[in-house]
Design brief:
Blueprint lengths: L13 H17 L9 E2 L2 E2 H9 L18 H23 L5 H38 L6 H19 L5 H31 L2 H12 L9
Antiparallel strand pairs: 1-2
Helix pairs in contact: 3-4, 3-6, 4-5, 4-6, 4-7, 5-6
Bound molecules: fe (ii) ion (FE2) (2 copies).
């Protein structure tokens, strides 16, 4: 049987994070270098960027300067922090069949701790601040209704996950995989469809970020 989940407490379920990290490292070791003719960024090949690094030039691979940052970068940073835990939903689903009932119970509790303690407050802050401001930018009061519908679908699955029998491995896996897919796609919609409107209106973005930071449950207010 695998080591007790409590033994690696770094994140919401660190023992899973360690397994994911090992696989990621192994995958990177197997990966072949990107081909100059295939991958290009801003008209320059990847090899040019690495060459720039070696020559001590400023490299676009490094963290962007403050001046180059998009106005919504703090919000995107918050998503990046959450995504690490969202990835664990799929990893938890994969591991469920190999665990004892007690281990499944504890893993489910940790996942619920993240979902209820971090993810759902984040969603509530968006509904309070981000979504109404986005609708105002678009000039259509109901523009964010589909995004709120996503939140409701997520909440329904969180409740089903909390109520599921720890012996019902199929249901636990179904809900965890479902949450992983829903939340991942929802984040992408926010970042790729909603945030660009704020990036084009920096003064609105600054006001929204300030209000989000003041909202209970927002990650930066912890
Ligand atoms: Fe959201
Ligand atoms: Fe979000």
């Amino acid at each position: 049987m695998t080591a007790a989940p409590d033994s690696l407490p770094r994140c919401c379920h660190g023992w899973i994070a360690e397994q994911t990290h090992r696989r990621t490292v192994a995958m990177h070791r197997r990966a072949t270098p990107p081909q100059r003719s295939v991958v290009r960024v801003s008209g320059r090949g990847v090899a040019d960027f690495y060459a720039g690094d070696r020559a001590g030039e400023a490299s676009p691979w490094k963290a962007p300067t403050k001046a180059a940052m998009r106005p919504t970068e703090p919000f995107r940073d918050e998503h990046r922090e959450l995504v690490e835990h969202v990835e664990h939903l799929a990893e938890a689903a994969r591991r469920m069949p190999a665990l004892s009932r007690d281990e499944r119970d504890r893993l489910r509790d940790r996942v619920l701790g993240f979902l209820r303690g971090t993810l759902l407050p984040h969603a509530a802050a968006e509904e309070q601040v981000l979504y109404p401001e986005w609708a105002a930018l678009l000039g259509f009061a109901d523009a964010a209704v589909p995004m709120i519908h996503d939140h409701e679908a997520i909440v329904a699955r969180v409740e089903r996950l909390a109520a599921a029998d720890a012996d019902d491995v199929d249901t636990l896996q179904e809900l965890l995989y479902g949450l992983y897919a829903l939340v991942s796609v929802h984040f992408a919609k926010e970042e790729e469809i909603q945030l660009p409107a704020f990036d084009a209106a920096p003064e609105v973005a600054a006001r929204v970020l300030e209000r989000m930071a003041a909202t209970d449950g927002h990650a930066h207010a912890h």
